[in-house]
Amino acid sequence: MNNSMITIKNVNKTYENLTALHDVSLDIKQGEFIALVGMSGGGKSTLLRLIAGLEKPTSGSVQINSTDTKSLIQVMFQEDRLLPWMSVLDNLSFGSKDKNTKAHAKELLDLVELGDYADHFPNQLSGGQKQRVALARALMSHPKILLLDEPLGALDALTRRKMQDLILDICQKQNLTTILVTHDVEEAARMADRIVVMKDSTNSYEETCPKNRNAGQIGIVADRVLGEILEEPEVQQQTA
Amino acid sequence: MQKPVTLTTTRKKINLPIDKLLPFLIPIIVILLWQVSSTLGWLSSSVLPSPIAVLQDGIELTQSGELPKNLSISLYRATAGLIIGGSVGFILGFVNGMSNTFRLLFDSSIQMFRNIPHLALIPLIILWLGINESAKISLVAIGTMFPVYINTFHGIRSVDPDLIEMGESYELSKHQMFFKIIFPAALPQILVGIRYALGVMWTTLIVAETISASSGIGYMANNAEDFVDMETVVLCIVIYAVLGKISDLVAKSFESLLLDWQNTGRSNA
């Protein structure tokens, strides 16, 4: 049985003379947590935007294998993109047409430990709190696929670690298919089931992460992935 | 669960009574010095009548009904001109801000027209419309249209594209996109335009009523000048200052009401 959620086949994306993606093919299973890592300009965010439907591929196909068509995919960006003139609760509920929206929004605020902040405005929150609101908002429409475009990039180390745990916990409990774009290979090694290295506009390397990994294993995976990104010959030999 | 932070407004407040009284300090000092100078004879009444004389003149003109009549006609012209000009400016700013086609079609012509000083149109408008109400209202409308247009246009064009993209990812309809994202994001800039337009409104009205009118505060001042009635001339100037201040207060109240989220902030991080 094929439980593939996202099938990307021979995707190319060009902007005038610039090639952002070249012949990318990737299969992502339902419930899988994928991390896209690589240097800036490698095509990570472009691939994420194609999956989100925010852009169209120049050639090739991005297929979402689900019978649900409404609100299937939600994106969480590096910037929180909260509407500053709306309260936290309204920020969560503004895009939803569900009658029980407010109650659901409150549940999600409790889930991200911000239940007492429903009536606050975004400028009354810290960076980490804003990102938690953005995460709750992304979950409002019961998505099956969660796309995370460097959502933790601007956070301090401690807040970042807490957010990693929170995202992992939510994604596992809700069985979300998740794609995380990050520059941080340790974050990728810590969170993902599979790490995909994007280099020279294509997916050049994949690493499957062990289950229930410890700090040592995370370090080894991160070193190996970093080696692939930087093309260090020694690390490549170790991998072989 | 985390406890919410204590909320305060970001603008630090001085003790409340001083905070309220401070803006009136300089006007009060100026009026007191003015009155003292007049009483001691340092300031001739032919140069500048005393504040008390101006006040007495104001009372007499109010009792005779002349001041309320002229004041109400000036307020009518100002309000009608602002509503017409502001509405046209907003609609043009909205249309050009939202549509590239309309922007390409209209913006260049509007910018060209904007660069003509609207007061230079007075002779033309008198020739077209005479010195009746429509002439003065038209002048105020033309004057107030451009600040509202420019600020509405730029407010809409400068909405954060990330927020638009976020709205698109939530599959908002065009109607929802405008009312939930674009208009609230552009509102601070639109209100700046309205506030600026209020200033232009009074300036235009003063000039229009001074040059071509048979009623209104500007006419009253002009008429008083003919009779060397210094008290009434100064009274009219003071009335314009008061009306300008009231307009500014109204605009500020709107800003506080509509943009209250801007005044909230965290007391601790």
Automatic annotation (TrEMBL), chain A:
Keywords for the protein's UniProt record, in alphabetical order: ATP-binding, Nucleotide-binding, Transport
Keyword Cell membrane: no
Annotated signal sequence range: none
Residue ranges of domain ABC transporter in the record: 6-225
Protein name: ABC transporter ATP-binding protein
Record carries keyword Nucleotide-binding: yes
UniProt-recorded Gene Ontology molecular function terms: ATP binding; ATP hydrolysis activity
Superkingdom of origin organism: Bacteria
CDD domains: ABC_NrtD_SsuB_transporters
TrEMBL record, chain B:
Membrane topology label: Multi-pass membrane protein
Pfam families: BPD_transp_1
Cellular component terms per the entry's GO annotation: plasma membrane
SUPFAM superfamilies, alphabetized: MetI-like (SSF161098)
Keyword Nucleotide-binding applies: no
Subcellular location: Cell membrane
Stretches assigned to the ABC transmembrane type-1 domain: 71-251
Entry keyword Transport: yes
UniProt keyword list: Cell membrane, Membrane, Transmembrane, Transmembrane helix, Transport
Gene Ontology BP terms: alkanesulfonate transmembrane transport
CDD domains in the record: TM_PBP2 (cd06261)
InterPro entries listed in its UniProt record: MetI-like, MetI-like_sf
Transmembrane segments: 21-43, 75-95, 115-131, 137-156, 177-194, 233-251
Similarity comment text for this entry: Belongs to the binding-protein-dependent transport system permease family.
Protein name per its UniProtKB record: ABC transporter permease subunit
